[in-house]
Amino acid sequence: MKETLHISNNQKINAFLLFFIVTATQIGVGIHGFQRVIYQDAKQDAWISVILSFLLAHIVVYIMMKTLDMYDSNDLYGIHIDIFGKYLGNFLNILYIFYCSSAFFVIVKNYTEVINTWVFPYLSSMFLCLSILSIIIYTFKGGFRVIIGICFFSFFFLLWIPPILIIPLKYSDLNYLLPILDNELKGILKGVMSMSFTIVGFEIINFVYPFLKNKTKYKRYVHLGMLFTLFLYLSIMFVSLTFFSGEQLMKTIWATLTLFGFIRLPFIERIEIITICLWMIIILPNLCLYMWAAYRGVQRMVNISVNKFLLIFSSIMFVSGIFINKRTDINLLNDWFGKYAFAVVFIYPFILFLCALLKRQIKKMQVSNSEKS
Amino acid sequence: MKKVKQLLLILIFCSFLIGCTETKILERISLATLIGYDVANENDENVTATVIIRQVSPDNKSTLETQTNTEATNQGTRIKVNLQTAKKMLAGQTHTILFGKNLAERGLEEPLHGLMMNSELSSSIYLAVVDGDAKPLIEGNYKNITDIGQHVYNLIDHNVQRQHTVSSTLHEVVRNNYSPLRDLAIPIIKKEKDIIKINALAIFAGSKMVGQLTSEEAFYVIMLRDKFKAGALELKLPGDTLDQEKNTDEKLHVAIDSIQSKRTIKLVDKSTPEYDVEVDLACRIVELHSNANVGKPDVTKKLEKAIGKEIEKELKRIVKYTQEKNSDIFGFGDDYYASVRNSNLTEEKWNELYPNAKVNFKVNIEIVRNGVFE
Amino acid sequence: MFNKKKKEKQKKQQNDQQKKEAKKESKKEPISSNRYEFLQSLKEKLHSPSDLIIRYVSPTTTVIYVDNLVDISLLNEQVLKEVQNAKQGATPQDIHTNLKLPEVDVMDELNKTILEMLIGACIIHIEGFSEVVIAKISSIQSRGLSAPENESQVIGSQVGFNESIATNISLVRRYITNPDLCNEKFTLGHQTNTSLSLLYIHGIATEEQVNTVRQRITDLDIADIIDSAVLEGLIDDNSLSLFPQMLLTERPDRFCDGLLSGKVGILVNGSSMAILGPQSFIEFFQSREDQNLRWSIASFVRLLRFIAIFISIYLTPIYVATLTFHYEVIPQPLLVPLNESRAIVPFPPIIEALLLEIIIELLREAGAKLPTKVGQTIGIVGGIVIGTAAVQAGITSNILIIIVALGALSSFTTPNYMMGNAIRIIRFPIIILAGFWGYFGIMLAVCFIFTHLLRQTTLGAPYLAPFYPPRWKDWPDSIIRLPSTFLSRQGINNRNPQGNNQGENEGNNQKSEKKVTE
């Protein structure tokens, strides 16, 4: 269709980098404690929920890419305006910008919470927020390619996780996985929904799409990236399910970290402390990309310079961060965001796809009508 | 550009201002390495904590200090202990936690929960029950032990690694504690004059200690719970195993090691319930108080059979004992839950079922090799 | 934003340049045909220096030169002889043709003549002609070729550049006998008039990058260049960054190796360091010697170097962070020695570490400034004496001494001095961060460094290549070095998009190049 974004060639990235972008955005703070939330719903079949949620995500991402393919080179914001017109489109854009901002906020809050609980109980969360913000601003100012570069490097900070999971495997008991499918399907499906907080991130392709150099073969990289995330989540889920007993898992807030805390290497103990600090580079691309996505949206609506946007965005994040500090508040926030994300990421793309199809049909009809007349 | 740079500078500057945090400089804190909990008073909730604190004195020597205090919660105790020490006490290097027998009999629910909530403690620390009270064991003077905290940890750790006793990391204990169908087993250590030894195995029902098994019996517990990678065992076989002329009452002593075992538990009948337990065990003979030629196939076969019988007998006895105490330390309940669909098995229900459960054993022994001298 | 400013700056510079050139042109002075007037103007320009020698060979002919700049024997045997033997009424053209010297010229412009004379030419002025003959007989005073001291290597050639640009170019020409080797000459600095050469191999080097370098050099408006390091700081992409973006090397083989892989090189007169670019971050840690070694050994050495960077940057901060905040991660067996070694140290770990790091830096700096033999002694004696004394006095713990010494040692494995400096300096802020916020502070630093490196470019090419943007084909020659069949001669960073790139059919090219270097 008509509207296209013009991106200069040196801004564009190779399609295979999508693999890293997708893994980097999907893996964030959720991985620290997603087991508990899903176990509450799906019990010992939680791993099925994980697989199902990824299945759903693959379908969703396929639909997303189909929608994007209808346009030559445009992001979601442009598609909104094209389909729904200026006012409704902009309204949807605001919703999406709000979604990106809240994702940013939720990640920062959860990360500071983890640091405060495990490593520095007395460190002001304001400081944590500020320091993370300053790093993000510095990265963000480097431009899109630098953000993707951070995505790329952060991937390699994940690779040590699967091998280290072998150690707790020694203490695992396969009985905890049995009997398979003993719970109602409803519970498993509910678990799928609870996964949404952990699994979201791939929607970023909605905005990265116009920046791709080669738009014909990019789909496989998105799917591959999601498969890697699935592998990581699934292995952590399996180990946690067999390592913890049910009741215990339900009481463990950050099961992954507790799991790591158990691991004792000859030269180092308490790996979870290092993991938590290391996680900064894992969430950095997450945060940068959400901020960037929000910026792209804002830029479309109002003519705003990068610096002004950064100033406004970070001060909003900082100030709202001051008010939400209690664990209960953060839990509420996570629940709310999970639902919002489920709606935005898992349901909305189908609607959008249908609308886009409809629009195309109407256009075709109009064209043929005009040809006839 | 300039503005953002200024903003960044201000941000960084502000960070320094508000970013002060509590330091825990290694030599300015005192580290608790061993904590023991006892019942303070039969009537109230209070728990006496005895802590071994490692400190470093300026003349380059580590000193150990024992502090005792009584309070209802861990944190309360810690505040009190801090009032008695010159340096801030931290528990992050604690590797072992001991419980007095009285406390174990009263129930470990609250102490365990407290331990898990604390992010300072790793879940890989060992727990043990002390025969008697923990306090005298910790405060005791030992001739050859310089650091009792480390000593107790090494004592338990190496025995767990060698599979001489049941592994009792905080994680495993809590896991079994929160699993409604499985009960705890924690080693018991005891002070005997100048040494500390692993004396027995405490078995629990719920979170209360109900009985104990000897440390030899712990071997069979491990065999039933898990698989062996490297175990060792001494057996007394009936005297007529190899030599028909000898009396049954005369015992034939056999020691085997390099034991590798695997057990499979099968639920055959879910109403009683009835289990078939099959243990495959491969081992090496290291000692045999007989002149019989072990190289001969028929001798080996005889030995295998006798050992299997002996082990079966022991297993039966131990399971019987746990059934009497209603303490499912082997995880039969988990197996029941895992193999019966929609069982809705609750703790109460299993407590009724377990004492009546029937367990059939079949032990297959395979003597793989025997020493260098026949 | 940043670029805009740079562009503005460049524009300004261009304007200035144009103005100056205009000025110069207006000042173009003719040479007076009158001997007296000519000498007068010459003396005026040069402020009648004491080493200006004026010889009146005949009533009409004068020979002028600056003492010590000209080759006396050539002057005697060729110039003076010829001028004296010249017939009465010989024109400058006649002398020009008769002089048996490799470089003779005729000029009619005063300023240029003076410049030539200052380089070492001898001027022959003949009454009645507004032209002079310039005989270039400069005596090149340079030290002989010696082994490069800062970048020594065990296997490979042992020759280094010296301070004469002529020698250096000849060295390069001898390594690369190739008509495509281009040499562009520039004169820079309106006080020093330093000559410099831009070298690249036509067809291998990227046109764009050559243009960039040429543009940056011509845009420069500076008074003086004493050393190539100054020039490097002026023409690299981000001179504010801690990390150098162009290589400074004193090894002709490394320089030629760079040229052959498509880089652009600059030689500056009076400086024994050549500039080479684009140079990615990884390439700073690769030594020319790696190519001389067996691939497995080269890979090992390279890996070792990268581990050394890690040790050198992070080991002390990790020590500080662990002892200040994260005592939990210390394994129990290590706890006792650490604790006991720290027992009598009165400072917190951050002060202790900074103190010791500064002592090490002091020793290094003192060792570098002193004559070689004394320097070495100072390094060893100072290290041992101060180290032992510090531990005995209880100011530092002996474990930290090991860590700091290891860090310093590791920083010296970097094959490039500039990069080694950067690695050493970057430790200090990280130690401070670690002392304030433990592992979190270290991670802040890691993120910052990563981002910073990602933001850098080298002659417009990405600095972190081949890792990011990922160029898998270049990976075999990065942290490790696989056998040459896996390698391409030319990194993508400096690959010519249209040119006849080397390394397309690797095997053959490799061999032919080897022949050339042999």
Number of domains of chain B: 2
* Proportion of strand residues of chain C: 5-15%
Class from helix and strand fractions of chain B: alpha/beta
Q: Kindly state the number of beta strands of chain B.
A: 13
Shape assignment of chain B: globular
Q: Can you walk me through this structure?
A:
The complex is a heterotrimer of chains A (373), B (374) and C (518). Chain A has 373 residues and is mainly α. Helices cover 75% and strands 1% of the residues of chain A. In chain A, strands 1-2 form a two-stranded antiparallel ribbon. The relative contact order of chain A is 0.20. The model of chain A has no long low-confidence stretch (mean pLDDT 88). Chain B is of the alpha/beta class. Chain B has two domains: 25-215; 226-374, Nutrient germinant receptor protein C, domain 3 (GMP Synthetase, Chain A, domain 3, 2-Layer Sandwich). Chain B has helices spanning 2-18, 74-84, 101-106, 109-117, 134-139, 148-161, 170-178, 217-225, 297-325, 332-339, 347-353; strands at residues 29-39, 47-57, 61-71, 88-90, 96-100, 126-130, 185-192, 195-205, 208-214, 228-238, 251-269, 274-288, 358-370. In chain B, strands 1, 2, 3, 4, 5, 6, 7, 8 and 9 form a nine-stranded mixed β-sheet that branches. In chain B, strands 10-11-12-13 form a four-stranded mixed β-sheet. Chain B is globular. The termini of chain B are far apart. By secondary structure, chain C is α+β, with helices and mostly antiparallel strands. In chain C, a hairpin with a 5-residue loop joins β4 and β5 (132-136). Chain C is elongated. The longest helix of chain C is centred in the last third of the chain and has 39 residues, at 417-455. Classes of the chains: A mainly alpha (373), B alpha/beta (374), C alpha+beta (518).
